Amino acid sequence: MKNSHQAVGLIAVAKQIDAHQLDPKNLLKNAFELANQLEPNLKAFVSRHSLEDLIKSIAPGPLSGIPIGIKDIINTQDLPTTNGSPIYANHRPLQDAPIVQKIRALGGIVFGKTVTTQFAWKTPGPTVNPHNSAHTPGGSSSGSAVAVAAGIVPLALGTQTVGSIVRPAAFCGVVGFKPSFGAISKEGAHPLSYALDHIGFFTRSVEDVAYAYQLLKEGSAYQGAKTKVNDVAQLSTNHMPKIALLKTPFDHLMSAEQEHAIQTAIKKLQQAGASVETVELPKQYWDGVNQMSTIMAYEAAQIHREHLQNHLGLLCENIKELAAKGADYSQAEYEAALNQQAQLRKSVSEIFKEFDGLLLAPATGEAPRDLTWTGDPSFCALGSYLGIPAINLPAGTSANGLPLGIQLMGNYQEDEALLSAAKFLEGVLVSEVKK
Fold first, then answer.
1. What is the pTM of this model?
2. Pairing outcome for strands 242-247 and 275-280
3. What kind of architecture, by CATH, is found in domain 10-241+355-434?
4. Which of 196, 206, 375, 408 is the most buried (most CB within 10 A)?
5. C-alpha separations of 124 from 26, 130, 161, 188 in Å
6. Domains of the chain: which residue ranges?
């Protein structure tokens, strides 16, 4: 069932448009027609613009004419932002979220709003995995991962609070990058947890995700129409990375195929001359990860107070449950959990004095054959809790023909260093993935 359409990457189309080798109208027309063809089955989008509106919004810039998927918890002025909930079915924000404003200022085009689980938490939308429609695409950024994997758009925005970018990227076979906490403005995105939410990206390569990150991060120097594609900094990979294989308390949950994907990656890294050592983190890091639920639940009780009061019948059970749990925590418990998070974020930098990246699974294995569940986010929790950058790289396929990935995490606010290590890793994996 997988779409055979040969998708072109973000930088490739940006360069072709910049060099007048590709008419952005044709790019948008192809994306629009492909979506029309695949959407009845994939259901990646909640809403989309008409082709006429897409063409009208072509503007110059380093993202000129490029169709981009926007997760449906991120505000857009010209399309409803439903947060995956019937409460917001007709919600039209008064303005774009800053990240969307930035995309438009750089010439990017909002192609459509992609399906999210309800309020980015657990309860799935209708989206299916593009490799096999009986399997989950992962969540909560389901539609964004699928829109990129199916070749409809070369870039989509997602959000991650626990595992909502890295895991669906692994399940759908694309690159998913969660930058450091605060690296991308999350203003104008419906919160799940103020202390844990991140906005990030889905693309088809590490270079593409680095391009999006350079353009869209907070404080980015790249401005509107003046910026040319070639002005945007390229990743350097002349440094031989030192990688730490991270032992986790969840390793027993990994499928044999997932374990094999990691071992294969290690072997290829070592053959390429990189060093790989096994490391364990002190117990307090995993204790901290267990405190994530305190932070999330406490904040959910505040965030959803009005929904609980006025829209109880329309609120999904998962959010009700999370908010109810949060009402049982005291402010002192919440503040203690935040203090612990801040301390561990600081102390983890010790590990990165020795290593360029922590290597671990992005998920337990292939996407589960279950559309009522988005999969186990355990392997992504540490990166989200610490707010350190994390990326999924495609790393082969399972016996069922579903994608497998590997995850690399970097030091807080050293996103470019992680992306460079990831590009090196992607280079050594490519021959394995192409088999």
1. 0.96
2. parallel
3. Alpha-Beta Complex (3.90)
4. 408
5. 33, 16, 15, 22
6. 10-241+355-434
